[in-house]
Design goal:
The protein is of the alpha/beta class and about 270 residues long. Helix content is about 30%, strand content about 25%. It has eight helices and eleven strands. The strands form two sheets. It has an eight-stranded mixed beta sheet with strand order 4-7-6-5-8-9-11-10, with helices on both faces. A three-stranded antiparallel beta sheet has the order 1-2-3, with no helix packed on it. α1 crosses α7 and α2 packs across α3. The longest helix has 14 residues. The protein is globular and about 60 Å long. Bound molecules: S-adenosylmethionine and zinc ion (ZN). S-adenosylmethionine binds next to loops.
């Protein structure tokens, strides 16, 4: 039999149950449900230093940019693969869910039980505010996912750090993990506009440990960014945002419109 698909207590690993406005385990460890409907299951032990994920401004920038539809082709393909790979009423986990854009696309395409978590409280708060039916979002660290072993039919994991042992632990034996990495040409025109010597991505698939890489699917198209605001929101979501010089950032500020490639690789892992 498969384990129940609901968070466990991050302290003692016993099942959590709803008790009034909180989730509580048999040992009375209790976690309040915030007014937006999410739960913070991050214990002091699993906070990564003083790093608590993306802040409010980054969360809002991500929401605004994704809602502009520039990555809609990827959301569509993820939703399509979810339909293909899952049976009736599957358990779907969005690992490092961000502000819930892809979780919502999946839930609209396929009735499912959905859990999503992220280290950033601000991201999780925005995800919960989407009010997706049958969904619960929580704050947690991917190095200690507060879920039972073998409870997930489909795990989604987009543009985030990889943790093979935890992903394998929570996945059912016939479950699948869809992990998305930037493709070779992702945002190359944007990089060209900012850097003297832009580089292409290496498309290196993370080592899945006991999970085997079963399939690679490319989603690629050209998108048109219609405002300087969209261009800067997109740039702020990339890893380059942290390591760009003032001179190069000034080039970014001058851009008002931009046509650029989006190029994604969906990696499917399984046992
Ligand atoms: C580039 S964003 C991608 C978010 C979302 N998957 C999307 O594509 O919109 C990476 C996310 O990983 C989260 N993250 C980083 N380290 C994490 C960790 N150790 N545990 C959980 N989430 C983490 C960040 O807070 C951030 O929301
Ligand atoms: Zn407990």
């Amino acid at each position: 039999m498969n384990a129940q698909f609901f968070p466990v207590c991050p302290v003692c690993k016993k099942p959590l149950k709803t008790n009034g406005g909180a989730l509580q385990c048999a040992q009375k460890h209790s976690f309040d449900i915030a007014k937006e409907g999410y739960v913070n299951l991050l214990t002091a032990q699993h906070k990564s230093g003083d790093l608590t994920g993306d802040n409010r401004a980054m969360a809002r920038a991500r929401r605004a940019f994704l809602e502009s539809g520039c990555f809609a082709s990827l959301a569509k393909e993820i939703a399509h693969k979810t339909q293909e790979l899952t049976g009736n009423d599957p358990s779907v986990l969005d690992i490092c869910c961000g502000e819930g854009y892809y979780a919502q696309a999946v839930a609209l395409a396929k009735p499912c039980r959905l859990l999503g978590f992220d280290l950033s409280k601000e991201m999780v708060r925005l995800a919960a505010k989407r009010k997706i039916p049958n969904a619960l979002f929580f704050v947690a660290n991917l190095s200690a996912i507060p879920l039972p072993d073998a409870s997930v039919d489909l795990a989604l994991h987009l543009f985030a750090p990889f943790h093979a042992p935890e992903f394998a632990r929570v996945l059912k034996k016939d479950g699948a993990l869809l992990s998305v990495i930037p493709g070779r040409d992702h945002l190359f025109s944007l990089k060209k506009a900012v850097y003297d010597t832009p580089y292409r991505n290496d498309e290196q698939a993370p080592d899945g440990g006991v999970l085997r890489l079963l399939e690679r699917t490319r989603v690629k198209e050209t998108v048109f960014l219609q405002s300087g605001e969209d261009i800067r929101a997109l740039f702020s979501m990339t890893p380059y945002a942290y390591r760009t010089s003032k001179t190069d950032l000034a080039k970014l500020d001058r851009l008002q419109t931009l046509e650029t490639e989006v190029d994604f690789v969906i990696l499917r892992y399984g046992f």
